[in-house]
Amino acid sequence: MNALRNRSPPVKLMLSIGGAGNDPNVFAKMSSSNTTRAIFIDSTIEVARNYGFDGVDLDWEFPGNDLDMLNLGWLYRQWRKALVHEARIAGKPRLLLTSAVYYAFTVQLDGPVRSYPSEAIRRYLDWISPMCFDYHGPWQNFTGPNSALFDPTSNFSTSYGIGSWIQSGVPARKVIMGLPLYGHTWTLKDPDSNGIGAPAIGKGPGDGTLTYDQILDFNSNNSNHAYVNFDNPTMTYYSYAGTSWVGYEDVGSIKLKIQFALSQGLGGYFFWALGQDRSWTISAQATKAWEE
């Protein structure tokens, strides 16, 4: 913690609660009453202060219905008020309050269509982090981009998702765009049909997922004879060798996404996850593109 805090430029350290492996029903129950929300909020503040964090982050994947979304808004409101009160009493800077969210303002996944409490987000959060990835994966029987910037055939794209957040009333400066440092893999049904949308029969190498570091090894393996392609409509990369296929991001597509974020006036970007890069290859180029 001290090593991170002493970096130049300085780093803000966030305590994030949740993630894809957590049961969303636990968050639904916690957020359902003022009492349970208060217990949760007080515990996050205590842990954040005890361990020297600069803020707290919620990663609820994902509120399952309109009631969950309503309660999420109440949780944001109660949390922010508690953070302001605690900072005043303790005589310390207020802890930041952020949240990882679905790539788009409206969730159309595993249940009814439901929308986030955009007014509460605008008023009470310092920023949100839309997870702009996992648009396609080996759970489908066709290949597809993990993180398409554009998609002429559907709304599964970063341009659509980010646009929906801004249109909902969340200021662009409070939107931090997510970028993946991993790709999804498939096994092709026919090695001669190998573009985006090609028929597939299941997971490919890495049990369906490869980190960027592993993808570079896959592409450079002499025995693979991998073919690397840039798909202009979606602004993503894919490669294939025999029946193995992977869709991913590389330096070129990441630069295009950074340029998009800048054009929209976004507050920044994040990677999931830095440890999946190779010697900071993509993350260093993304920093350079942002600063240019």
UniProtKB/TrEMBL annotation:
The keyword Hydrolase applies. Keywords: Glycoprotein, Glycosidase, Hydrolase, Signal. GO terms for molecular function: chitin binding; chitinase activity. Residues 1-292 form the GH18 domain. Pfam families: Glyco_hydro_18 (PF00704). The keyword Ribosomal protein does not apply. GO terms for cellular component: extracellular region. GO terms for biological process: carbohydrate metabolic process; chitin catabolic process. Signal peptide: none annotated. Belongs to the glycosyl hydrolase 18 family. Chitinase class V subfamily. This is Acidic mammalian chitinase-like. It comes from Tripterygium wilfordii (Thunder God vine). The lineage of its organism: Eukaryota, Viridiplantae, Streptophyta, Embryophyta, Tracheophyta.
